[in-house]
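Hey everyone, long-time lurker, first post.

I ran two proteins through the pipeline my lab uses and got sequence/structure pairs for each. Pasting them in order. The first:
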Amino acid sequence: MRKAAGSANRLPAVDTPLRVGLVGAGPWAKLIHAPGLADHPGTKLAAVWTRRPEPAKELADNYGAVAAGSFDELLDQVDAVAFAVPPSVQAELGVQAARAGKHLILEKPIAPDLASAERLADAVAEAGVASLVVLTLRFAAITREWLTDIAALGEWRGGTARWLSGALLGGVYEGSQWRTDEGALADIGPHAFDLLDAALGEITSVLAAHVTEDDLWQVLFEHDGGATSTATLSLRLPIDPTIVELSVYGEHGYRSLGRKPGSALESYVALLDDFAAMAASQTTEHPCDVRRGLHIQRLIHQARTLANAE
């Protein structure tokens, strides 16, 4: 299998739009997935399915797509599936979609637990389909430039990530049951862990993890090459706007990165650039493919295990 160049180096252009089915019709599906898939020249929002037919029909009608009557019906009409559902649902249906030969756009975390993530990654590998995980910060232009610059310098000794938000205290995601149950580690942890890993080298172990009763996480990592890093995460602090900061430090001083407000859809468009080109060229490897999701799932599992053992 050929390896994708990654989001820093664009893959070839696509001649025929990829027919994509969207599973889910919640806030993230409406704000990001549906408009991104419908407007991108390399994709077509062909069908929408949810377990409740009314939201699926409403979203599908807005974009001239078909509201599928079942997941099997959706699979019959598309080349790829984009998921905007809780991890437990995604892990189950993602295996089915991969076995049906459909390319996958997966939300993070890719599954509710490590065993489910392994099954999903195995199914994708066995089917030989393309996959990308929606790590929106990783696909942002400002992030790509920052990672390129720090990679050229090298010799970084450590780093830190801070993601502090009141998202579960109010707003569109307050009613998200899986976010409420799984908390900051599962929801925003993947973004922070992915960027620390990309900046400082592969995270080889979780050295320590602590969580408070109100879901404030502190996680300490060791990286290949000897660097260490920390991640501080919360979705239940009265902070608005959300603070997202990543930094590295070492022989070349200190370099920091922040999140550009309102950049999620822009990042999703960049993800779709790669996804459509991967499918067209039968490329299955990418820095943010399902194997990346599995690596992050292992880190979540290790952090939760350590915190529960305290």
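...and the second, right after it:
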Amino acid sequence: MKEYTVDPKFVISDEPALRSLFEATHTLAALKSQDALDTHAQAFIRRSPFVCVGTQGLDGKADVSPRGDPVGFVRILDEHTLAIPDRPGNNRLDSLANIVANPNVGLLFIIPGFDDTLRVNGKASLVTDPDLLESMSVNGRSPRLAIVVRVDEVFMHCAKAFRRSHLWDPDHLQDRREMPSLMNILLDQTTGAPSDDDEIRKKDEDLEDEYRKTLY
């Protein structure tokens, strides 16, 4: 595939140039931003089993990490503060290291079946308060830490992206088997995937076993 090169004359380099491409936003969109978790935002978060956490390090590199758990896993501590449990992962710690360096985070809450989403922006800290962690335990296992977010901005996001993508439409579900398995992809990208189907199948089974043992 030929490398794509951006022609500088087509690059938008300042905000006035950007805004000149679009009509002015309507009043409701400008006013919807809140500085606290009102009853609607709290109700949305309590229904959500999934949130994407956007972070950025001091070097400017950005990262988005998915977090999922039983419905309502993100704790609302007060109208300005929420807490996200950090469950076992691969220990790359990309998001957590970014938060240590730069506390600004963006959250996107998703509810299965809902086309609209909830966006929350704020400043995060990594907290190891035993009482808080114990309150977030699942199957008798508490997280090692929680991401506590002080909310600066919260607002609902419209349904256009989810409707364009048909994300929840069963007629648009794709067959996972049409691509190699996760283990096959990871091995192919790193040490090399084995050509033996039985060996790949065994590695897939080992991964599923690890999922069962290490979700919490």
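Reply from user beta_strand_b:
Welcome! Quick read of the second one: Residues 197-214 form the longest helix (18 residues). The chain has a mean pLDDT of 96.
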